Amino acid sequence: MKIIIVGIGKVGYTLAKHLSAEGNDVAVIDKSQEAADKGGDSLDIMCLRGSGLSTRALLDAGVRETDLIIATTSSDEINMLCCLTAKRLGAKHTVARIRDPEYAHEVSVLKQELGLDMIINPELEAANEIGRVLRFPTAINVETFAARKVELVAFRVVKGDKIVGKNLAGIMNDIRFPILFCTAVRGEEVIIPDGNFVPAEGDLMYIAGKPSAITDFFKYEGKYQKQVKTAVIVGGGRIAYYLGLGMSRLGMKIKIIEQSKRRCQELDELLPDCIIIHGDGTDEQILEEEHLEAAGAVVTLTGRDEENLLTALYASRLRVPKVIAKINRGNYEGIIKEMGVDSIISPKNVTAAQIIRYVRALRNTIGSNVETLHKIADGRAEALEFVARESTWNLGVPFKDIRFKKNFLVAAIVRNGSIIIPTGNDCIRTKDNVIVISRSSNVNDLNDVFEA
Known about the structure:
This is Trk system potassium uptake protein TrkA. By secondary structure, the protein is α/β, with parallel strands linked by helices. 33% of the residues lie in helices and 25% in strands. The protein contains 14 helices and 22 strands. A six-stranded parallel sheet has the order 3-2-1-4-5-6, with helices on both faces. A six-stranded parallel sheet has the order 14-13-12-15-16-17, sandwiched between helices.
């Protein structure tokens, strides 16, 4: 596909990197010559200096032949106008990053009036992801599929866990819960396990199943924690706003610590059910005064990775049950995990995964088959949801009689509202929602998991 990305900041760069790696013809427009040069040199793609509102820049980038334009500048208004202009010049599809909460309730109107095919709000998506973890604090990460009927949950194996030293076949025979061990991360290795795999201390394991079955498994392991009742958010930006709004509506007691007095006043008006504290969230005295150690969870959401890292480590040292840190730089993720903070949120990666799903749906010649896409295992594997169609191969054939490609696993099937954790005797039927785990990063269709 021919794709133009306008704006090569954090989100734009991440998108350009992933989309070009998947074989798309990517061009970038940025008003900064330095940013354009950096993108061109490191990604080996065409980068042009110019404004996303410039007809000349869009034409030079090939907008008339473009399948998709993605506007990711820091200005919502520029992104919207850029997409409108590109559509009139011939771009087939448009995606705009729109972050301002004032536009959040106008999505349908904006899409209709401006001809936008997709609107993405990175901060809202990040807040939703954090919210899922706060509702299931035992987990390091929670992804949902099939209208939340199926969850994919990551957890760390620790010394004393009942599954340590047993192979998965034996574990499944012992527990008899309808779950499936889908992926294991051991050091730098990502494994799609079979029944002979033996979990070890330190492994990051992903399991799939309906929420009640996953809860039963964690109770069996002695890991179960109830939903967080109180949370302290350090940093009062847009993610904090969306998170505070959503969690307070669920009855969670939220306290937000923000350094800007003006922003505190804004949040106080916007979030009447939250407690807003004016102060430096990295100041140990402030954190002691606000009894950080008594919180059910701490979420660090300042604009600086270093501050988020230090505050998260401090909260972990106080043994706060759940600590989540926003980190934008990938090179910090390994450090923070080694120090005991497993739950990391990256808005740019959340956004990239959403848009990549959309791109793959567009690229799929038989229709929008990719329903959901989540990057897992630090981006080294994917969890995808497909809808089986008449053109899907091997319909009605038992799994034991199908040749699957290496490094793929069917984790769950949702059929008429019922969840099936597949065995060799199960099969795929039309209209099934099929959740697949893949170590490949270029899966566009359910047929990609089968040997021809």
